[in-house]
Amino acid sequence: MRLHILGICGTFMGGVAALARELGHTVEGSDANVYPPMSTQLEALGIGLMSGYAAEHLQPAPDLVVVGNAMTRGNPAIEYMLDQRLRYISGPQWLGETLLADRDVLAVAGTHGKTTTTSLLAHLLEHASKEQAGLSPGFLVGGVPGNFGVSARLGQGKPFVIEADEYDTAFFDKRSKFVHYRPRIAILNNLEFDHADIFPDVAAIQRQFHHLVRTVPGNGRLIVNAHDQRLAEVLAMGCWTPVETFGIGCGDWQATLIEADGSAFTVHRNGELIGDLHWSLLGNHSVMNALAALAAATAAGADPRALLPAFASFESVKRRMELVGEVNGVRVYDDFAHHPTAIATTLAGLRAKIGNARILVALEPRSNSMRQGAHAEALAPSLADADAVVFLHRPELPWDASHVTAALDGRGSTAPTVDALIAALHEQVHPGDQVIFMSNGGFEAAPRRFVERLRQD
């Protein structure tokens, strides 16, 4: 079958393309921005790429058009597809019907931590498969897991681990992507208001999460954050699946911190000691991700005690507190931050590790919710552990960020361009500082540009 994928260079759709090619389909695709690293990864798989969304890209007609959720009416390729009555399907639905129907699906849902937890769960099952045949997983991750080097693969065993996004499926299907996955095991990691462009309030997100809960079978498992009241409210709407909870100091799976920065902790399950866990990640949010992945891997048949050594070899996803350089004692990180809670927990973890050293933050309001100002009131409190903040306030930002920086008691400033932001940081930085660039976009390569600026001093 010849598939044409619209929006093929997005991380999710690129993963769909790789899986389709591995299944033996002829795959091609279009995207507005065809550029490395995704273009390189796809071309190496023998996938043809076309720049732009011209109708001609769908001529001659493919057997099936797989439509990414960034596509909208008015797009030339979409209009041609509809006018010519070509067969089409969304990426999540194609996955659900073609690949996932015969697999034991482990879905990782939540406002934060999906990519890291999905990568970690795949890593744990891969580790377990060395002792227990049949656990080597397939996966689809919204990033590139350091332990695998690719965002998707079919795998050899029955498990398939997938990042389960609550964002909508396609222009013709406004349900959340994750309702198509029909998991046997689902992690509900956390639930907060986000995606203000498609959800009017948190209750609308809760309804989508309950749609996911409705699809998990009675012989499956729900792994649920014990601290999250909104998730408790979701389960109160109706639950037909055994639930295991996880938390720091509470829940069926409990962590007790050994190190305040979250790099070491003790795990108990229902009061029984599992063991101590040591790894390189920081922050309470990382501890919660670890508990969720450990619980899910155990539900899939792995021995939790045998999994503990695997955490030490876990390599996090690119752009999750990724150290991009160290110059004259200044450490520069690139972090995929898009929500105040994630910002706060990331900074708290770093603060616990470094003590009184200074933390400088460069923040780009890049997500739709950030750009709309949905998180404006929570931003200043989330930056409590930062010693200085430079906020990228582009002229087209539709809200005034000055009240955010004003609430930082002299620690905050704005910059209208990335060049100005880098210059402002450079004026403030001293040896020993920790500098974090936070954005869920490309940030115009600001972290690496800043490292080069430091090297020129």
UniProtKB/TrEMBL annotation:
Residues 319-441 form the Mur ligase C-terminal domain. It catalyses: UDP-N-acetyl-alpha-D-muramate + L-alanyl-gamma-D-glutamyl-meso-2,6-diaminopimelate + ATP = UDP-N-acetyl-alpha-D-muramoyl-L-alanyl-gamma-D-glutamyl-meso-2,6-diaminopimelate + ADP + phosphate + H(+). One of its GO terms (molecular function) is ligase activity. Residues 3-100 form the Mur ligase N-terminal catalytic domain. Residues 108-297 form the Mur ligase central domain. The keyword Oxidoreductase does not apply. Keywords: ATP-binding, Cell cycle, Cell division, Cell shape, Cell wall biogenesis/degradation, Ligase, Magnesium, Nucleotide-binding, Peptidoglycan synthesis. Gene3D superfamilies: Mur ligase, C-terminal domain (3.90.190.20), Mur-like, catalytic domain (3.40.1190.10), NAD(P)-binding Rossmann-like Domain (3.40.50.720). Belongs to the MurCDEF family. Mpl subfamily. HAMAP family: Mpl. Reutilizes the intact tripeptide L-alanyl-gamma-D-glutamyl-meso-diaminopimelate by linking it to UDP-N-acetylmuramate. This is UDP-N-acetylmuramate--L-alanyl-gamma-D-glutamyl-meso-2,6-diaminoheptandioate ligase. It comes from Rhodanobacter panaciterrae. The gene is mpl.
